[in-house]
Amino acid sequence: MKSIRFSAQEAPANLRPDTRVFGVSGSPRRNGNSDILLKSILTGVVQHDLSSEYLNLTDLQFQGCIGCERCRKDKICTGLVDGMSVVYDRIISSQGLILVSPTHNYNITSWMKAFIDRLYCFYTFDNNRPRSWSSQLAKQGRKAVIAAICEQENKHDMGFTLEAMKLPLEALGYDIVGALSVFKIFDKAGVKHDDHAMKRAQELGGRLADALKN
Description:
By secondary structure, the chain is of the alpha/beta class. The protein contains 7 helices and 8 strands, in the order ββαβααβαβββααβα.
């Protein structure tokens, strides 16, 4: 696996996905628990002979969707030209996707929320009211796994973190093949000492790889 850094350029042309995995961490703590969890999931992917790359969103200069609706015509985000302009190519060309976020105020981080909102450009809307819609990424065998980590002790206190990743990905056409919740972890890199969580993360990566290969 490799980490990637991006600079803004023209939006990529649409591509059919390859059997590889793109991992995204929404944590503002570089090399913290979410990054470690993501890398453990990717280890499981690589052990099943699939290529992968990953990104911590705080390494990316980008902003949230501004609702300009130019993507209705262009089929990709052209209203903003920033780091996401290049990330779209990784999303389009990777059949597998991993999203990992810590819990911030019962939800995903603002970085992960902005990232997910910028995937709005992949929707195609009809002009009827209420509008029906479809996804450019649908029916392409795309698979995803999601993971969330928090200091709190139970799913109730984790709030909407998993659902905030799961529902948008399903709407975009991804089959969610697994989810992981990790509790009672706050200290930076503390998840390294949770053998059970690390094992489950690696197994989750293996499950994603198997789903993509079958």
